[in-house]
Amino acid sequence: MFIGFLCALGAGLMWGLVFVTPVMLGDYPGVVLSFGRYLGFGLIALVPAWFDRKRIASLSRADWIAASKLSLVGNILYYAALATGIQLADTPLPAMLIGTLPVIISVFSNWAPGHPSESVAWRRLVPSLLIILAGLMLVNASELAHLDGKRSVADYALGCTITLGALAAWTWYPIMNARHLKRHPEIRSSTWATVQGLTTLPLALIGFIGYGAYNAFAGGYDFPLGPRPLPFVGLMLTLGLCASWLGTLLWNKASQRLPTSLAGQLIVFETLSALLYAFLWRGAVPPLAVLAGIVLLCVGVTLGLRAFHRAGATAEAHA
After folding, report:
1. In whole angstroms, how far apart are CA 245 and each of 14, 44, 176?
2. What is the Cα 86 distance to its own chain's centre?
3. Rounded distance, CA 1 to CA 291, Å?
4. What is d(CA 199, CA 146) in angstroms, rounded to the nearest whole number?
5. pLDDT tens, 220-235?
6. Domain residue ranges in the chain
7. What is the rounded distance in angstroms from the CA atom of residue 82 to the CA atom of residue 42?
8. Rounded to the nearest 10 degrees, what angle do helices 247-257 and 189-218 cross at?
């Protein structure tokens, strides 16, 4: 459990980068950022794929189909929706919606666990979920004060709607990803991360070329590398390596070692990391409300860990 906890923490630190990149590259469409990130992921995955080619070759057709579905929904569609939502509504509102993932994933995975051993009594789970939710609301209420007022109500509404699509995609992804890994414990975390990169590459390439064809008629974007090629390429490769390949590898390890509803709570590290990077980018100190929310998030995660630890100890005692 401790190793799984550390892996989830590492994945959260990597994933937090995806929230500041759309702000740093605000003059790039969200879909371009998604296709660019996952082109980087796929190209980077070719290197470990060569060294891991024997394990990859042993995967079944069903494994490749599952990886393709996870890549399409949890990678390309999720980040295209998130980046677009951030650019339409600014960072705080999408962060508020995505920040509810720890609660939503835990509820869904505990309500319909992939295996009976993954569930825990609601009376044990609910206190940690409520504390995490309270922490998220404190953090996000403070963040909403940073809305710049330059966007229209229509932009905020559209950004909110699109971000809800990202929320749905990443509620589905970790639950289905964890279930597949637990049904196939012979698949290594690094192998599964690499395979998702390989399946993402053609999807991202087709999408990028398709956007280029659309842009040739509609205009509005300097295809393919945009107005700032070097920052764009550098950030896309950084996200491809850190947020995609390494983040996926660490999350796969966490998914294999932790119950899905507990792992869902640990996605809170993504929110904390996003806040850390956002305040570093702003050059500002978090206000007291944000610090109080962070404390509640940490308390809630600690309670969640204890709840599952006690459940595991009880199961072992009965055995």
Report:
1. 10, 8, 18
2. 14
3. 27
4. 38
5. 888 889 899 999 999 9
6. 2-318
7. 20
8. 140
The tokens for 236 are 């896309």
User: Is the link from the previous residue into 185 a cis peptide, with omega within 30 of 0?
Assistant: no
Q: What is the CA radius of gyration of the chain?
A: 19
Could you tell me the pLDDT band of residue 308, with boundaries at 50, 70 and 90?
Answer: low
| pLDDT reading at 291 higher than 90 | no
Closest C-alpha to 287, from 15, 129, 16, 278: 278
